[in-house]
TrEMBL record:
This is ER-bound oxygenase mpaB/mpaB'/Rubber oxygenase catalytic domain-containing protein. InterPro entries: MPAB. GO terms for molecular function: oxidoreductase activity. The lineage of its organism: Bacteria, Bacillati, Actinomycetota, Actinomycetes, Kitasatosporales.
Amino acid sequence: MTPPARDAFAALVLHRRPQRARVGLTLGFVRTFAVPGIAEVLAGTGRLAEAPKARAKATGAMMFALIGHGVDSPAGRGIVAELAAMHRLPGVDDELMRYVLACFTVCPVDFAGGTRAERDAATAFAADLAAALRIPPLPDDARGWMRGFETAGFAPSDAGRALWRAVAPLFAARLPGPLARHAPAFGAALLDAPLRAAFALPRPPLPLRAAAGLAFRLMR
């Protein structure tokens, strides 16, 4: 990936709208829980349920280091090796890895309100990371491919629901102090219908959905 492409994506998620990008990354992480095969792998390690804040922080740090320094940087090569080790876990195939990659690149840009240039930069980053992981690249319409994958792959599972319960409080770190204690409800209000169905969550009332959208989108 050329430096200008990397810089456009990095500028969005690290400098222009870092808080919104982090919420988007968290939502991307949550989306993977709705795929039973991924949820089983994540739950099977036990690490996410035991220390959700530390695990989510580590995941975010890995992605932002890759975005900021590049896949081919010394730091990036180390992270790619860690991700490749996940690819070798039983039950993790190329399509699951591609879906996770889509979630971690499409969702932060979408939630941060990225420009066309920033979306193109995210696409270039995803292509570089896919090549480094030796998995097929995402299609040009990564967002459309991701939604198609979800239509076929989302399903309720005990593991997925348990992971959502473990991670939902993490939205507190992105909320103003007085609202932090309502983090699970505000986080649920950001989920779309397919995610709510997978986690067996009721649709939050309209005022809560509106308040959640406003609270998170007022962030830088």
